[in-house]
Amino acid sequence: MSQDDPAASFPAHLRDISGRTAAALAACRYDGLLLQAGEPPGLFLDDQHYPFHAHPPFKAWVPHADVAGSFVYFEPGRKPRLVFHKPDDYWHQNADLPSEPWVEAFDVAVVGSQAAARAALPASLARVAYVGQPFPELLSWGLGALNPEHLRHRLDYERARKTPWEVACLREANAIGARGHRAAEAAFRAGGSEFDIHQAFLAACGQREQELPYNAIVALNEAGATLHYQHLRRRAPGPLRSLLIDAGASWRGYGSDITRTWSHADPDFAALVAAMDRLQQGLCAEVRPGVDWRAIHLLAVERIAVLLVEAGLLRCTPAAAVESGLAARFFPHGIGHLLGLQVHDVGGTQAGPDGGEIPRPPGHPALRLTRVLEPGFVVTMEPGVYFIDALLAPLRQGPDAARVDWSRVEALKPFGGIRIEDDLVVTPNGCDNLTRAAFATLQ
Ligand code: GLY
Ligand code: MN
Ligand code: MN
């Protein structure tokens, strides 16, 4: 493992999270932490299972996907123990413990059953906290606490600040995701359906659907107005107007979250996309330590209001569009969120390590991040404008109806909406745009 290899930063990552965990355990008066990776949930009245996804608190320690049934046991001052589950099973090919450098950071026990896993842990777990999915046998394990909230708050709060290893993983997840986006754009330009575009994305990422950090949103034309559009139509609509694709890739448990919007030969919509792209980059330039994310969100709403007026959609001042809530009808989500082991990472509105809540600005219930930025935070920047019937229809009957140019709305509605989303790591003086850097290497 060379010094240039991102994997070289894993031991320091483990030291960092060991230190954070030791402090959290001391504050909450536990002697140890037992983390479970989870098991794939079964389908009701069936012998099939949903795809396995390791629990995020476990993934913070173990950068490996094939870990169903495994545990990590940590006690301050000792090497963490990885109890790696490899059952004897001739129906499935269970993963071997990989021979990768990160494994050396653990004291490893390979076990074939849950009973053997228990035997590989300390005899008494009376002062140990468990974080994971409870399972029936756990009741007889003698644990001190199951998923105690005060401990989880401390661990969640700290997860906002990424270690260099985590940033390297997110950088790689962006590199893979950018390749997927390039292929998706080409499939769109070639006239592909949502299904075809999704297949192109997966193939270019080299990842199967269940490996992605979230369900990709691949929306042609008016479908772009559904914020979490979940279908993949097998036939391309005609005429093809626009693609909004929100899709990320995974690396070592960390995910990218990237959105691009493309116009199909419509200069008017393409100009609006270009304006949104400039607006998004302007907001990225505001990201630095000490900035309250709520202020970034409110600034985004102001700038989107300017864009709506300049695009001829609104016939009032930008200030009036913000004040009356008109701008929020076209931009009804938050400007971004924490990103990491989960696409909407934990702790975004937490007031401190003990818990508590930093309130959202009044009138902005969808904002997922209200904290002040610190170096090492990874956030998304994702302004958007959408033509959503459910939000616009009541406006037509309301007192602000005359402030909207409805013919302009009707002209743009068939394009669905626009979102541009990048992933940023906060640095001591500003931020690094992981997504733009990834796309730049492809040119
Ligand atoms: N992909 C979900 C989001 O952007 O928040
Ligand atoms: Mn996002
Ligand atoms: Mn997204």
Structural commentary:
With 443 residues, this protein is α+β, with helices and mostly antiparallel strands. It folds into two domains: 117 residues, Creatinase/prolidase N-terminal domain (Creatine Amidinohydrolase, Chain A, domain 1, 3-Layer(aba) Sandwich); 277 residues, Creatine Amidinohydrolase. 33% of the residues lie in helices and 16% in strands. It contains 13 helices and 18 strands. The protein is globular and about 70 Å long. It binds glycine and manganese (II) ion (2 copies). The site of one manganese (II) ion has 4 residues, from loops. The site of one manganese (II) ion has 5 residues, from loops.
Quick structural gist:
This protein is of the alpha+beta class. It has two domains: 31-147, Creatinase/prolidase N-terminal domain (Creatine Amidinohydrolase, Chain A, domain 1, 3-Layer(aba) Sandwich), CATH 3.40.350; 164-440, Alpha-Beta Complex (Creatine Amidinohydrolase).
Please give the structural blueprint.
Layout: H1 10-28, E1 32-36, H2 56-59, E2 71-74, E3 81-85, E4 107-111, H3 114-119, E5 128-131, E6 145-146, H4 149-158, H5 164-189, H6 194-205, E7 217-220, E8 242-247, E9 250-251, E10 254-255, E11 258-263, H7 267-284, H8 293-310, H9 318-323, H10 326-330, E12 350-352, E13 355-357, E14 378-381, E15 384-386, H11 389-397, H12 406-412, E16 417-419, E17 422-426, E18 431-433, H13 434-440
Parallel strand pairs: 1-5, 3-4, 5-6
Antiparallel strand pairs: 1-2, 2-3, 7-8, 8-11, 9-10, 12-13, 14-17, 15-16, 17-18
Helix pairs in contact: 1-4, 5-6, 5-13, 7-8
Bound molecules: glycine and manganese (II) ion (2 copies).
